[in-house]
Amino acid sequence: MARIAGVNIPTNKRVVVGLTYIHGIGPAKAKEICTKMGFPPERRVSELTDSEVLQIREAIDAGYTVEGDLRRQVAMNIKRLMDLACYRGLRHRKGLPVRGQRTHTNARTRKGKAKPIAGKKK
């Protein structure tokens, strides 16, 4: 099992697919890395040699922000917005959608499970 950027890459998957298990590397960047290294698209992670895994690890460390650093950077960006108390920061603080979506109905992913409001007493 190859370990790159602190993530165990599944051995039975293709290299392009396996690299997407790293936070911050999607299909496009994974394909870019593989073409830079010169791997054919059907190559499996189990077929990689130790030197090739090391090559991939060095390429990712040199050219991409991934895993912990990326998560920290995103969290700091959100915290900065919240400290500025700008509109987007306030939406983050309240746990509401940030990018202009409606909240009258829907928005359940951000708002959480619906809380029932007590009905009228008779």
Structure description:
It is a single chain. The chain is mainly α and 122 residues long. 49% of the residues lie in helices and 5% in strands. It has a two-stranded antiparallel ribbon with strand order 1-2. A hairpin with a 2-residue loop joins strand 1 (2-4) and strand 2. Helix 4 crosses helix 5. It is elongated, with a radius of gyration of 21 Å. The termini are far apart. 13% of the residues are buried.
Please sum up the structure shown:
With 122 residues, the chain is mainly α.
The H/E string reads: EEHHHHHH
Beta percentage is under 5%
What is the mean pLDDT? 92
Class based on secondary structure composition and strand pairing? mainly alpha
Distance between the termini: 66 Å
| Order of adjacent strands in the largest pleated sheet | 1-2
In DSSP terms (H or I, runs of 4 or more residues), the helix count works out at 6
β-strand number: 2
Poorly predicted ranges:
none
Taking Cα atoms only, what radius of gyration do you get, to the nearest Å? 21 Å
Task: Write the topology of this structure.
Blueprint: E1 2-4, E2 7-9, H1 15-19, H2 27-37, H3 50-63, H4 67-84, H5 87-94, H6 108-111
Antiparallel strand pairs: 1-2
Helix pairs in contact: 4-5
Key structural traits:
mainly alpha, 2 strands, 122 residues
